[in-house]
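From the thread on structure requests for the teaching lab: each student submitted one protein with a one-line request. Submission from student K.M.:

"Model Thioredoxin, mitochondrial from Dicaeum eximium, tokens only."
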Amino acid sequence: MAQRLALQRLLALPTRGPLASHGRAFGTSAGRRNTFNVQDGSDFQDRVVNSPKPVVVDFHAQWCGPCKILGPRLEKLVSKLEGKVLMAKVDIDDHTDLAIEYEVSAVPTVLAMKNGDVVDKFVGIKDEDQLEAFLKKLIGA
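Reply posted by the TA:
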């Protein structure tokens, strides 16, 4: 009942006029298209291992404080590269098998992958300059 009432209220929001600005607009940006959450092992294989572009893989967890700082910082820098590199986000609690396969023993762990191979890696938090250098090395810039 409460969900139905909430949905009715949401659908009743005006789309024009002074109250329309209180609604939330949704859009897609280039940064969002270059960053994705891995759904399962098959998705990882398709979108990361088989990717024609280099991929940064962010192994993180919801409970990890440093992950909450690193993730957005990394996403911002990946979006600045305008599609030259993709970013895959892997929650280790949801995808323990991938964490084990890629020998993730601490979070955040970030892998740089090219043509399905891990070519670089770091564990822990990095500042923006270090992340930029990591990404430039990955794309060969």
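TA comment: Residues 6 and 44 are 36 Å apart (CA to CA). Strands lie at 35-37, 55-60, 86-91, 109-114, 117-123.
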